[in-house]
């Protein structure tokens, strides 16, 4: 039987370091927090190999005298709190005094600092938690922290690090999340090869939002605010048009500290209600300013979780703030889902064929035969002869079959047709590509641009050619001809989301991407179709491999039998 022993200081500090520092992005977060607490107006971060080889964070903050420099590397040495009561009145990002000691224990650490008003500075060097030297040096005011060879003395932790590319993405995410909360500070992020993000100081948040989220997303954001006892909530609410399949663009700040909180994310989604398609997440930046005594930030080693005094009340208030903000100008958001298409419930419905604008839906529904009769031939889809009745609410195609009424979702039907056409063309290397005479400029974030660059070959296979246009812009040079009418800014945004989360086999990735392409290229709910256009769509649907469902699994059609209709009208019991 093993006996209980007290751990050595060396082992204890490495265990503690593992709780606070688990990857390069953790180092970046802790060092930036320190710079902000030091009153910096400019913070620059430089990384090598995703932070595995070097992380360098410099600032123009207050700096440290020699005595504080020696103390800052000791465990639980902090200027932020003095006693237990201070834990419930925290106004800074850091407060435990663990970060620098933890970083020093698992790296080669150099700190160069010069206090404001001092003529000289000091440089401290450590390796594996051991002090090597401290010297007087000339340096600018502020502090520079350089971390080299992270986890060099903890091989088990080092082998769990991801590729430099993935670690760089993690650093970009952490850097971005902090920078969005402090628009009054200039932030610079660069690798050994290039500048990734340069965010100038700003008096307003919108310029910062434009640089991080993209101009188009930021321009359509709505602002909304509300108050409850001791708490102010301010939300910048993105259009449902730019919703994503992940919650990576939900930014939540409590007293400017970025946190991740499932309860708050749920409240945001509930605030969107039926404006947001199920399974998608909006782009939202939410600030919660609360009395420090109402928030407990000392519940997680990385300080990314907090506990609220009145979480139920906060939940309700966030829902209200989001709902109120969206309610101001709901007409700005032409989002149509199955839950929001019934504007005329209770009014008589007229079923009719209506002419479309030249060159719109007719072009999308490129017909094969010159003309179709009123009857659709027997097929694998309908398995019976049907008669076209018309269009309902510019969304559904109505047909009469042998057994009753057939209702077809025109968007889902065309989505299935386009998916099959795209998949067939790609598999047979016969996809028609249209080179744009005037390439389109699309704004993306730094991280999104990296995703596009990494998946360039996949995009080319899909007939999509993009090119770096400097800064936070790309040029769209070529697209599949079949999708020339798609909203490519929105489509590129959703493609990036798919590419980011699908690091899987090429076949699986292509399937996901083609489904998104088909969705964006298809006719929409609200598009009026002529009888020939509806007949053309039905004929093409009959030839689809899986005509009963769209590529995302939604049903394409529903049948109501004559017997069910007779029961509705009490003609039979």
Structural notes for this entry:
This protein is of the alpha+beta class and 573 residues long. The protein has 3 domains: 9-203, Histidine kinase-like ATPase, C-terminal domain (Heat Shock Protein 90, 2-Layer Sandwich), CATH 3.30.565; 211-332, Ribosomal Protein S5, domain 2 (2-Layer Sandwich), CATH 3.30.230.10; 348-573, MutL, C-terminal domain, regulatory subdomain (Ribosomal Protein S8, Chain: A, domain 1). The protein contains 18 helices and 23 strands. A hairpin with a 2-residue loop joins strand 4 (121-127) and strand 5. Helix 2 runs parallel beside helix 6. Mean pLDDT is 84; it is low at 329-360 and 367-380.
User: What is the second-level CATH architecture of the largest domain?
Assistant: 2-Layer Sandwich
Helix-residue proportion: 25-40%
Structural class: alpha+beta
> Using only CA atoms, what is the Rg?
29 Å
First and last CA, distance? 78 Å
> What's the number of domains?
3
Q: What is CATH's topology name of the largest domain?
A: Ribosomal Protein S8, Chain: A, domain 1
Unreliable stretches (pLDDT < 50, length at least 5) are: 329-360, 367-380
Number of strands: 23
* Residue share in β-strands: 15-25%
> CATH top level of the largest domain?
Alpha Beta
* Apparent shape: elongated
Mean pLDDT: 84
Describe the strand arrangement of the main beta sheet, using strand numbers: 5-4-3-6-2-1-7-8
With helices defined by DSSP (H or I, 4 residues minimum), what is the helix count? 18
The largest pleated sheet is described as:
8 strands, mixed
What would you give as the CATH superfamily of the largest domain?
A: MutL, C-terminal domain, regulatory subdomain
């Amino acid at each position: 039987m093993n006996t209980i022993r007290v751990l050595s200081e060396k082992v204890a500090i490495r265990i503690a370091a593992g709780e606070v520092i688990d990857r390069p992005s953790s180092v970046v977060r802790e060092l930036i927090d320190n710079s902000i607490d030091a009153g910096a107006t400019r913070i620059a971060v430089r990384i090598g190999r995703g932070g595995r080889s070097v992380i360098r964070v410099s600032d123009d903050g207050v700096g440290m005298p020699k005595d504080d420099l020696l103390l800052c590397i000791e465990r639980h040495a902090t200027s932020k709190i003095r006693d237990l009561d201070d834990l419930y009145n925290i106004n800074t990002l850091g407060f435990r005094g663990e970060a620098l000691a933890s970083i020093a224990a698992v790296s080669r650490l150099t700190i160069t600092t010069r206090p404001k008003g001092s003529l000289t500075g000091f440089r401290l060097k450590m390796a594996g938690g051991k002090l090597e030297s401290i010297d007087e040096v000339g340096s600018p005011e502020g502090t520079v922290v350089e971390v080299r060879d992270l986890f060099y003395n903890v091989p088990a932790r080092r082998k769990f690090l991801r590729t430099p590319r993935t670690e760089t993405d993690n650093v970009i995410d952490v850097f971005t999340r902090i920078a969005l909360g402090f628009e009054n500070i200039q932030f610079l992020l660069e690798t050994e090869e290039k500048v990734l993000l340069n965010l100038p100081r700003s008096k307003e948040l919108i310029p910062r939002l434009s640089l991080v989220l993209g101009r188009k997303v930021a321009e359509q954001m709505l602002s909304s605010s509300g108050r409850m006892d001791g708490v102010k909530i301010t939300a910048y609410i993105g259009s449902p048009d730019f919703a994503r399949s992940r919650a990576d663009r939900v930014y939540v700040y409590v007293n400017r500290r970025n946190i991740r909180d499932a309860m708050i994310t749920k409240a945001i989604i509930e605030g969107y209600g039926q404006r947001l398609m199920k399974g998608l997440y909006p782009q939202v930046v939410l600030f919660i300013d609360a009395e420090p005594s109402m928030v407990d930030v000392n519940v997680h080693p990385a300080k990314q979780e907090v506990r609220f005094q009145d979480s139920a009340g906060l939940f309700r208030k966030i829902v209200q703030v989001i709902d109120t903000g969206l309610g101001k100008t709901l007409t700005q958001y032409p989002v149509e889902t199955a839950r929001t298409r019934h504007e005329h419930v209770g009014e008589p419905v007229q079923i009719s064929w209506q002419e479309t604008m030249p060159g719109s839906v007719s072009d999308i529904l490129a017909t094969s035969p010159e003309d179709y009769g009123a009857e659709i031939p027997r097929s694998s889809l309908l398995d019976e002869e049907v008669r076209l009745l018309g269009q309902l609410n510019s969304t559904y195609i109505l047909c009469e079959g042998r057994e009753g009424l057939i209702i077809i979702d025109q968007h889902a039907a065309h989505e299935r047709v386009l998916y099959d056409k795209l998949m067939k063309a790609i598999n047979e290397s016969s996809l028609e590509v249209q080179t744009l005479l005037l390439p389109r400029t699309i704004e993306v974030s730094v991280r999104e641009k990296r995703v596009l660059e990494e998946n360039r070959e996949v995009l080319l296979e899909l007939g999509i050619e993009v090119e770096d246009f400097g800064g936070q812009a790309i040029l769209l040079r070529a697209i599949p001809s079949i999708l020339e009418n798609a909203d490519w800014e929105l489509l590129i945004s959703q493609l990036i989301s798919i590419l980011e989360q699908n690091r899987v086999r090429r076949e699986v990735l292509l399937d996901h991407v083609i489904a998104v392409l088909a969705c964006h290229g298809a006719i929409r709910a609200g598009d009026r179709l002529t009888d020939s256009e509806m007949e053309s769509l039905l004929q093409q649907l009959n030839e689809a491999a899986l005509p009963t469902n769209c590529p995302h699994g939604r049903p394409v059609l529903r049948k109501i039998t004559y017997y069910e209709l007779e029961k509705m009208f009490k003609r039979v019991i």
